[in-house]
Amino acid sequence: MSENARLIWNEIAPEGAKALFAIHPYLLNETALPAELIHLVFLRVSQINGCAYCIDLHTRDLLKTMAADKVALIPVWAEVPHLFPHHYRAALAWAEEVTLIAETRASDAAYAAAAAVFAPKELVDLTITIAAMNAFNRLGAPFRLPVKARP
Prior knowledge:
Elements lengths: L8 H4 L1 H8 L1 H8 L4 H15 L2 H12 L4 H5 L13 H14 L1 H4 L3 H10 L2 H21 L11
Helix pairs in contact: 4-5, 4-7, 4-10, 7-9, 7-10
């Protein structure tokens, strides 16, 4: 364990971890959402929540399909709209709205904007994606899940 890590939650509660991780096959295989969009949302939510482990993991996942210079600009996606397709921008906006729900209250305007782009099932699946990543971040960040060392 790294010097900053507190607990490796998924090792201490493997059945709880198994239950949470069970969402991944659903999201990646059973929804109409593209895998790249799912990883994009995972990364943005993790950036907002400050989960180093998840930022590292989902940056690496996204770099398999997206150019590094584009990945680097995800925190400022709204300032570079020409780099992200409309449905990616809508997903990112909704991800921020839902992740910051204590502040935003998932406003009617934000909901309407997301609902204008995503069919009802897609919007529910997108929101499940956001909720799942928030759950993982709320375990990884407070327990300071360590980022794997690299040369």
